[in-house]
Design brief:
Elements: H1 23-47, H2 50-61, H3 91-104, H4 111-139, H5 141-144, E1 150-155, E2 158-164, H6 181-194, E3 201-206, H7 220-237, E4 245-250, E5 269-275, H8 277-293, H9 318-325, E6 328-329, E7 332-333
Helix pairs in contact: 6-7
């Protein structure tokens, strides 16, 4: 028996998911744009000065008043825009702008206040110099070995640099003004940094209380003065301007560092003071008074030649430099032979 029932075949057509549209992309782009604008506004609010904020506020309140400003931009990196009150339509902004201009007018500063501000700025400059000198000692391996012998401090006269003797490491040969090589290196390194400031310096020499063993009238007063002068010559050789030296003086043992032990090696020291303007005026006033009291007592320079000023044009080699600097030997001034 034949089966004539038809055969039905079902074919299932598989297709990919339909396109859902790109509306979400537009929404996300709008959100990203809004966030960027929000963070931009927050950055401008944190970085703008109060004056710039007032000008921005005035621009949105009255754009016409800013149409003839110095810059077409609300915030110009080259300078803040200047509103034009004569063109503004907002009288309140005009009055506010005029009030701000009156506040900007410079006020009269009393001389005492101006002097106080100048002293404060000078003190800050000396503190920066102190920090720079301390960093130089710490970073320079040659100076770091002697950091225990170098003392920095701010005083009422300025920045004082004290270079002291150690038990087995003196700055000068015993009883003379002959500089040791490492002490010369310290002074030359300090001169390079000190000359960066316009302040003048005072150089003073000190000894301990041990009496000078030499013969004649040469004693600790002469020795301390000669050592201070030897330090001055080293600074000049290192490039320091001679005209910036306000005073060179010897104190012998009259100003001991360690009063409890007058024979302590730290009492033998060289003090270099970077003077404040007030201390400099006091020193120059004393010198002027001394010059006015006895002008006829001033000695004329030898051969009519003016003393040299300023650093040497051509620095000498280290060996020759040390030989020229140490002209004080055994308390006697040793001058170069004639013709050299």
């Amino acid at each position: 028996m034949e089966n004539n029932q038809p055969i039905i075949v079902k074919r299932v057509k598989k297709t990919a998911g339909g396109h859902h549209g790109g509306a979400w992309k537009i929404a996300f782009a709008d959100f990203a744009t809004a966030m960027m604008a929000f963070f931009l506004v927050m950055w401008l609010m944190s970085s703008a000065t109060p004056e710039q904020k007032k000008l921005i506020s005035g621009y949105f309140k009255d754009p016409i008043g800013f149409s003839e400003s110095a810059s077409p931009f609300v915030i110009d990196l080259g300078g803040s825009p200047t509103p034009a009150p004569d063109r503004t339509l907002n009288q309140q902004v005009e009055d506010q702008t005029e009030g701000e201009e009156r506040e900007i007018e410079p006020a009269q500063v009393a001389p005492e206040q101006a002097e106080g501000l100048a002293e404060e700025l000078e003190r800050e400059r000396l503190e920066l110099l102190l920090q720079e000198l301390q960093n130089k000692v710490e970073e320079n391996p040659q100076l770091q070995r002697f950091k225990d012998q170098i003392l920095f401090e701010i005083t009422q006269d300025g920045l004082r640099i004290q270079i002291m003797d150690a038990e087995n490491r003196p700055m000068f040969a015993s009883g003379s003004a002959h500089l040791q090589p490492y002490f010369e290196d310290i002074l030359l390194a300090l001169a390079e940094t000190i000359k960066a400031v316009p302040n003048k310096i005072s150089v003073s020499g000190h000894t301990d209380a041990k009496p000078f063993a030499g013969a004649g009238d040469y004693g600790n007063w002469e020795l301390s003065a000669n050592r201070a002068n030897a330090a001055r010559r080293t600074l000049i050789a290192g490039g320091y301007d001679e005209a910036q030296v306000a005073r060179v003086v010897g104190y012998a043992s009259s100003a001991l560092f360690d009063r409890d032990d007058p024979f302590n090696p730290v009492n033998r020291r060289i003090d270099i003071v970077v003077l404040t303007k007030k201390a400099q005026r006091a020193i120059e006033g004393e010198q002027d008074a001394a010059g006015a009291a006895g002008p006829d007592d001033a000695a004329a320079p030898d051969d009519g030649a003016a003393p040299p000023s300023g650093p040497p044009a051509n620095p000498l080699p280290p060996g020759e430099l040390r030989e020229r600097l140490n002209i004080f030997e055994e308390g006697v001034l040793q001058l170069d032979p004639a013709g050299e």
